[in-house]
Specification:
It is built from two helices and six strands. By secondary structure, the protein is an alpha+beta fold. It is globular and about 45 Å long.
């Protein structure tokens, strides 16, 4: 996505695989830059992938006239890691209102098929003043 060029999702190599207001699928291929100093996949890389998927979905689903959005809450539960291969986040909307949107994302290792994390975020819809 051209809009992410030079920003954190671009730095992490996040790619958009599917983009609709009902479903966002994003991924990155695990590299050393995604690892924490302890050698495991950094939780922040997983959260960034999931949050980006939810954020891009929110952008596509903004109500007419809204000027943007910002994340006001997020939560992650981690179950597994991946040291190589592709990590994929699939995000779907749970609630799309005039003032807030809530999105859920599941993060999986494409290589093993294991669920790595579940993620939920609430977005505040912004309106021009």
């Amino acid at each position: 996505m051209a809009r992410q060029e030079g920003f954190l999702p671009d730095q992490l190599g996040i790619k958009v695989l599917e983009a609709t207001p009902e479903r966002m699928v994003l991924a990155f291929d695990v590299a050393k830059a995604h690892h924490a100093p302890n050698g495991f996949l950094h939780a922040g890389a997983v959260v960034t992938l999931a949050d980006t998927a939810c954020g891009y979905g929110t952008m596509l689903a903004l109500p007419e006239g809204a000027s943007g959005f910002t994340t006001i809450e997020l939560k992650s539960n981690f179950f597994a890691t991946a040291l190589s291969g592709r990590v994929v986040a699939t995000a779907i909307p749970v609630h799309r209102g005039r003032t807030t949107q809530v999105w859920d994302a599941e993060v999986v290792s494409e290589e093993s098929g294991k669920r790595m994390a579940l993620f939920r975020c609430t977005q505040s819809v912004l309106w021009p003043r």
